[in-house]
């Protein structure tokens, strides 16, 4: 019987009693067999130890990952339970909405300003008005004076004078409505601008003014 083939069975306790006794008697007389059994047992212990260490390291890693996940969940719960967290989110959304509204309004105002600049025209030149380029002459009629105010940037005065001329029914209604529509555009009031344009009688205008009013109406209809 070759006892070297049964070293693993002996060390693992798989031998019958009679065979085990014969194996142990063989180890007494065969020092090499005894050494092989001893080395196998030592190697088995080392292997088991390494396996245990590897298993412990794996378990510790899993435990650490689990603790990390638990910490993250705990932090999320704490944040969600804090009213300030929701207030911060709400404030952020509100700020985005407000900025969007401001941006859109600014964009619209820019469009209105561009229309004002496109359809505005200056009053009579200084030569035609006797050299009075930035002042009001005694020969200027109220309609011309309102136009000069507008050209000088005195929007409130121009608007007030044009409105008075409309109330009095002066022979300036068409130009008054035209320039009041431009003032309304500059002030961001689209509906008022459209209203003044609707009050203009195109038949009473010269060809140039007639064309300006028609083009402006077309552009405002697309807004």
Detail the topology: elements first, then pairings.
Layout: H1 7-11, H2 17-29, H3 31-81, H4 83-119, H5 142-151, H6 155-168, H7 173-186, H8 190-198, H9 207-221
Q: What is the approximate shape?
A: rod-shaped
How much of the sequence lies in strands comes to under 5%
Number of helices: 9
The largest sheet is:
none
Q: Count the strands? A: 0
SSE series: HHHHHHHHH
N-to-C terminal Cα separation, in Å?
107 Å
Low-confidence stretches: 125-133
Name the assembly state.
Answer: single chain
Could you explain the architecture of this structure?
The protein has 223 residues and is mainly α. It has helices spanning 7-11, 17-29, 31-81, 83-119, 142-151, 155-168, 173-186, 190-198, 207-221. Helix 5 runs antiparallel to helix 6 (155-168) and helix 8 (190-198) packs antiparallel against helix 9. The termini are far apart. The model is unreliable at 125-133 (pLDDT under 50).
Characteristic key phrases:
single chain; 9 helices; 223 residues; rod-shaped; mainly alpha
């Amino acid at each position: 019987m070759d006892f070297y083939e049964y070293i693993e069975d002996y060390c693992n306790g798989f031998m019958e009693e009679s065979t085990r006794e014969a194996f142990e008697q063989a180890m007494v007389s065969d020092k090499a067999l005894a050494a092989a059994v001893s080395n196998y047992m030592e190697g088995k212990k080392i292997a088991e130890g390494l396996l245990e260490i590897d298993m412990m390291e794996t378990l510790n890693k899993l435990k650490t990952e689990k603790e990390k996940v638990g910490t993250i969940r705990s932090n999320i719960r704490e944040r969600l339970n804090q009213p300030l967290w929701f207030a911060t989110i709400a404030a952020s959304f509100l700020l985005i909405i407000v900025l969007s509204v401001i941006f859109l309004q600014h964009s619209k105002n820019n469009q209105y300003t561009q229309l004002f600049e496109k359809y505005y025209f200056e009053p009579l030149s200084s030569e035609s008005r006797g050299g009075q380029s930035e002042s009001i002459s005694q020969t200027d009629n109220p309609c011309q004076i309102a136009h000069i105010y507008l050209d000088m940037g005195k929007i409130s005065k121009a608007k007030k004078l044009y409105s008075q001329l409309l109330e009095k029914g002066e022979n300036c209604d068409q130009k008054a409505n035209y320039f009041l529509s431009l003032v309304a555009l500059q002030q961001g009031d689209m509906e008022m601008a459209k209203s003044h344009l609707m009050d203009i009688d195109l038949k009473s205008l010269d060809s140039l003014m007639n064309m300006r009013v028609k083009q402006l109406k077309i552009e405002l209809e697309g807004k």
